[in-house]
Amino acid sequence: MNITALFIALAGAIVLWFFLMRRLRTKPWIEKGPIDAKDGAMGIPAERVGLWIFLAVVTSLFSLFAIMYTERSGYADWRPLPDPQLLWINTAFLILGSVAFQRARGAANRENLNSVRVNLTAGGIFTIIFLVGQLLAWQQLASSGYFLATNPADTFFYLITGLHGLHLLGGLWVWARTTKRVWGRFDSYDVTQIAGVRLSIQLCAVYWHFLLILWLALFYLFSST
Amino acid sequence: MAYVAIADRDHEQHLHDPQTFITKYIWSQDHKVIAIQYGLTAIAVGLLAMGLSVMMRLQLGFPESFSFITPEEYYQYVTLHGMIMVIYLLTALFLGGFGNYLIPLMCGSRDMVFPYMNMLSYWVYLLSVLVLMVSFFVPDGPTGAGWTLYPPQAISEGTPGSGGGIVVMLLSLMLFIVAFTMGGLNYVTTVLQARTRGMTLMRMPLSVWGIFVATILGLLAFPALLVAAIMMLLDRLIGTSFFMPSMLTMGVESEYSGGSPILFQHLFWFFGHPEVYIVALPAFGMVSDVLATHARKNIFGYRAMVWAIVAIGALSFVVWAHHMYVSGMNPYFGFFFATTTLIIAIPTALKVYNWVLTLWRGDLHLTVPMLFAIGFIFTFTHGGLTGLFLGNVTVDLPLSDTYFVVGHFHMVMGVSPVLVLFAAIYHWYPKITGRMFNDTLGKWHFWLTLLGTYSIYLPMHYLGFLGVPRRYYANGITEFIPDSVQTANAGITIAALVVAGTQIIFFVNMVWSLFKGEKAGGNPWGSTTLEWQTPDTPPKHGNWGDELPVVHRWAYDYSVPGEVNDFIPQTEPPHEGVIVGREHGVKH
DSSP secondary-structure letter at B252? Predict the structure, then answer.
């Protein structure tokens, strides 16, 4: 298994190197004049690039937690905890949230203000339901004797779900600001104003999809041990 | 379609000009002010760390002469000296300081793309420093676990600071990581998004390349430290056993059981090794620019230099376990990591060759920044070569716990980056302040620092070969340690005191020149890069006046044959009759 992982990593590195080299092979000492940078990044809003870089950081953070989880679960004192059935319902709500954000994004592109309002609000509410559900799941675990420090398995569960929830809360802060703008000063008849929040809605959608995929991966991780 | 640089598009949004003293100098969103705030804070806390090292040296050079240095305090000095130097000084000064100052100016943008977040980054950094300082005032003092904070001793009873100090240390690190992430998002996005017209990736000065790749490393590696800090904090505060094995402490069985200290080491060094390059890559980049400018020659092998930076950055993630050969891990593991360690020496050596070849037959101007840059080549080569020794498992095993390691990493990671920092401060001082520093004082500073640090660290290698163990408060009477070691230690301490005292020259020079220095003018070194082409010196808010600069050439057009001047700024259009790039179908 390790050999396979190593091979995939090596292959990935070679492909990455190849693409990088295509860009880094120009001879800058020969080219003169204000040639336009041909990087694809130039046309993209800075916020979008910033978000993707942030997602890379978050991926790194949770991957490291996942590796630690897997490593630590190999030790003798590991006592896995039962996954509450509630998590399935929570997952469904998070999926609904992601779908709603995707619909809001589509509506913003079509400049359909009513649809933006409805879907954006629904997306946030589904997420809040997810978070409340996670808290209930914690309560269920605690009431059946799985406390924060009972076993590393329990600590990891509380810690990782907590961190995931915190990231959602951060997203909800942006969501709240955007939703306020969408409901607030917009004149229903002047749909062009949507352009001002379109980017926020798009980025929210990307962030929510990411956190959904992250949650699915974490859920798999929890149920696999 | 007309090309509009992003920095221009968002102009109205980003640049609300600061009005009052407070928004201009304190809650500032200007990258130059933030850079200076970062820089001054980092240097201040670095001075403290230097003071701690002086205390350590006093103890080692003249044991039993200073009754106020207890063993516990000695370990606290060791820990804080290492942690502050590596993280709160070097990382913060290279990326928060020079990254902030140079990226927008060298890329031709008006500011960072997220100025507000940039400001937050500094204030959270300051908070993390203040929290760290709090550890001096908690009941059992700062942690004395060693800068690597290895469990179990970091949180076991009996280690200095295991009560409050370690908690404060971990909190401070977590804050630092938050601050770094906010800054890092800015640096990377600015390089990708806010370059001015004509500034292709391959026209960026190597300083920007070094800072750019180092920031990516930091963004991906600091989470490992965050994970380690969170898990250790839980071990300490609520009694989990992530890293803590069952053991007897002070004769009593601890409440911990089943955790793995090695797991912490893997996490820590997965951060810790990239951290070496987070510090080294910006240094590599900036030293390249200083060398090229003062040698009046284009940097030798620009493309290879860029590739080497990228390759070193990538490889730095697969060498971490060479810090753990003595941890009892699988020997095959050691073999793998020894191999990757030796591979990373290839791009690194390539950079050293290219620096030397840049000097070769150059028109060397031995200015103060140039002296520091050349000094760096010596110390870095020296430290790099001893790194090859230690990268091999069989050589590392006997040397790992000796002064050889102290000599090695201070040479490669202490002295070398600090020499570059001095080179960079002297080099960009005229741009930052608008005035020249005093040349004579600068040269005294250089020679005393270079010779002084050599007299500190060269003997340490020899002590290491003798087997003198590091981390010891005092050697006492040990059969294999001859008496002459004590003499050497006393000599090292005297050299350390001289070097520490020498820094006064530096500060006097900087402060005096700030008020009395000669006016520098816009481009005193005759540099090609954009930061020297600003309409005002020091650059005003927004950097470029009404119009952004347009870049016509790469960053290293020095001593081009047939030209009047020995440098052509990046903003200068190609001359009549000169070949104009490959889109015109010219083959080379």
Answer: E
